[in-house]
Specification:
- By secondary structure, this protein is an alpha+beta fold.
- It has 3 domains: 84 residues, no CATH class; 122 residues, Band 7 domain (Tetrahydropterin Synthase, Chain A), CATH 3.30.479.30; 109 residues.
- It has 9 helices and 13 strands.
- The strands form 5 sheets. Strands 6, 9, 10 and 11 form a 4-stranded antiparallel sheet that branches. It has a 3-stranded antiparallel sheet with strand order 3-2-5, with no helix packed on it.
- A hairpin with a 2-residue loop joins strand 2 and strand 3.
- Helix 1 packs antiparallel against helix 2 and helix 8 crosses helix 9.
- The longest helix has 70 residues.
- It is rod-shaped.
């Protein structure tokens, strides 16, 4: 037979893929059922039915072999699986957790173990008070119909609108799959409970000016609640995006804010005046009191000194009256005469006044050159 001539039974081709093998097996099943029907429907030459052909046994055997081959092929094909990066595989053996597989090529027992892939690297998020319609650099948000999620009551009985976002990752895939039926809904319920409790315990002004502190507290409490539920997630971020009063009360809120700012301004001005005037008055009062104390001490000491001096003079006067009287006269004249401009000396024998010319005193008239 020439090399380029095909054999009478055709070219022997092997299936190149599992799909081709499966298609060939299906075709064999069809051929087996079709052959059996043709043999049963054949009639003789005289029109009488042909005797039945006992081919049921071999047909069932072929079908059984084909089914077994399909099952073996499917088992071998499904035994190997690949886990993508950022995911883990949870293997269930007869519905019960068996093990966790890491990214890469892995093996599982066919027909006994099932695979569930869980993404543990992606950051999932839940939005409250709004929904992101078109994410991107210029994201489009929709707030219609989500007012009931964001409306809250503060500690001073004011209504406030709080929009926030919760971002989380899967930390325990087994708990994430089997401990809580609906983890996203559990996160939403727990987050609303924690946020409403924290906002409800604070005043309106404190919530507006301390959103970062409140967000940190809400994140810690939310993580604690999710750990108690064994949800298998860890909170990455809890951030308050927008805190404002509702639209119907914004004008009244602005008026209240303006009045509060005016009140604070007046209080600050009054405190500034108080700090400027009161310390000065207190200093003046303290100075006057101290001066009075000093003056009193001075007067008392001077009186005591005068008293001691008078007593000493009296004692000396009693010992030598003439000498003491003359000395007192001379001391008095010594104090009085420097302040007298004109001095007249009077003598008993002289009839007229004799002015005393003080040559030591400078003349008040201008000097003639």
């Amino acid at each position: 037979m020439p090399m380029n001539q095909q054999p009478p039974w055709g070219q022997n081709k092997k299936p190149s893929s599992p799909e081709d093998i499966l298609a060939a097996l299906i075709q064999k099943i069809r051929d087996a059922f079709g052959g059996g029907q043709d043999q049963q429907n054949n009639q003789g030459d005289d029109g009488s039915p042909a005797p039945p052909v006992q081919s049921t046994g071999p047909g069932i055997g072929k079908i059984f072999l084909i089914i077994m081959a399909l099952l073996v092929f499917k088992g071998v094909y499904s035994s190997f699986y690949t886990i993508e990066p950022g995911k883990v595989g949870i293997i269930l053996r007869f519905g019960k957790y068996a093990r966790t597989t890491q990214p890469g090529l892995n093996f599982k027992i066919p027909y006994m173990e099932d695979l569930i892939k869980v993404d543990v690297e992606s950051v999932r998020k839940e939005e409250f008070g709004f929904r992101t319609r078109l994410p991107g650099k210029t994201s489009v948000f929709d707030r219609r119909g989500f007012d009931m999620e964001s409306l809250m009551l503060t500690g001073d009985k004011n209504v406030i609108n709080v929009d926030w976002i919760v971002q989380y990752k899967v930390s325990n895939p087994v708990n994430f799959l089997f401990k809580v039926r609906n983890v996203p809904q559990a996160i939403r319920d727990a987050s609303e409970m924690v946020t409403r409790r924290i906002v409800g315990n604070m005043d309106f002004d404190y919530v507006l000016s301390n959103r970062e502190i409140l967000a940190g507290s809400a994140k810690r409490e939310l993580q604690k609640q999710l750990n108690l539920l064994q949800s298998g997630v860890s909170i990455v971020t809890l951030r308050f995006l927008d805190i404002n009063p509702p639209d119907p009360v914004k004008p009244a809120f602005n008026e209240v804010n303006e009045a509060d700012q005016d009140r604070k301004r007046l209080v600050n001005e009054a405190e500034a005046t108080y700090n400027r005037v009161i310390p000065k008055a207190r200093g003046s009062a303290k100075r006057i009191v101290e001066e009075a104390h000093g003056y009193a001490i001075q007067r008392i000491n001077r009186a005591k000194g005068e008293t001691n001096r008078f007593q000493a003079i009296v004692k000396e006067y009693q010992l030598a009256p003439d000498v003491t009287r003359r000395r007192m006269y001379l001391e008095a004249m010594q104090d009085i005469l420097p302040g007298v401009d004109h001095i007249y000396v009077m003598d008993k024998k002289q009839q007229t006044l004799l002015p005393f010319l003080d040559l030591a005193k400078k003349s008040s008239r201008p000097e003639i050159k």
